[in-house]
Design brief:
Helices cover 77% and strands 2% of the residues.
């Protein structure tokens, strides 16, 4: 259920942001970030509210998030940083890499993972890379300014970030790492 929510909410935000002008897209994500930050602060400082929150969203909250911020904050942070600091096409594709690749890695890794590295599977990472790149090609009209080479580099960077992100939430690291690599490569081409 959590992976499906990640996928649907992420795609919803990508499509809405893609069809808004840049500033409106940033303001939308900033508004959601502020709203979720308020919800997180209230629930984490008020045990009764937290219990209600956990009861309502039990399928979406991992056990380690019961007394810590949920990954939604990190997802919106990564999205916001990408939209503010990077080219729009790059940011939209980087957010798509996170939205599509992360659940693919988790799903395939848990189902088919045999070769582990730092608790993550090679099979999950390959699924992340493949699904991210193929989705990038399918949705290419949302980011027409990106070449195939830049999209490959972004998908590879996102895959590596997902594989190596242990201390910092990958929902923050993946879109930022993908954006940095794509922006750097695009300035060289």
């Amino acid at each position: 259920m959590r992976r499906l929510f990640h996928l649907i909410s992420g795609l919803f935000l990508i499509f809405i942001t893609a069809y808004l002008d840049s500033m409106k897209g940033i303001l939308l994500v900033l508004s959601l970030f502020l709203l979720m930050s308020i919800v997180e602060v209230i629930r984490l400082y008020h045990p009764d509210v937290n219990r209600l929150f956990l009861r309502c969203f039990s399928l979406l909250v991992r056990p380690h998030e019961e007394n810590k911020p949920t990954t939604t904050i990190y997802f919106l942070s990564g999205m916001l940083i990408s939209l503010i600091f990077f080219n729009r096409d790059i940011a939209l594709y980087a957010i798509t890499i996170l939205t599509i690749g992360d659940p693919a890695a988790s799903t395939f890794g848990k189902r088919f993972g045999r070769h582990l590295f730092k608790g993550k599977s090679l099979e999950g990472s390959l699924a992340f890379l493949f699904v991210s790149f193929i989705t990038g090609l399918i949705l290419h009209r949302l980011w027409p300014g990106l070449s195939t080479e830049i999209m490959i580099a972004g998908a590879v960077a996102g895959t590596i970030a997902e594989l190596l992100s242990i201390r910092i939430d990958d929902n923050l690291i993946i879109p930022v790492a993908s954006s940095v690599v794509m922006q750097g490569l695009s300035s060289l081409i």
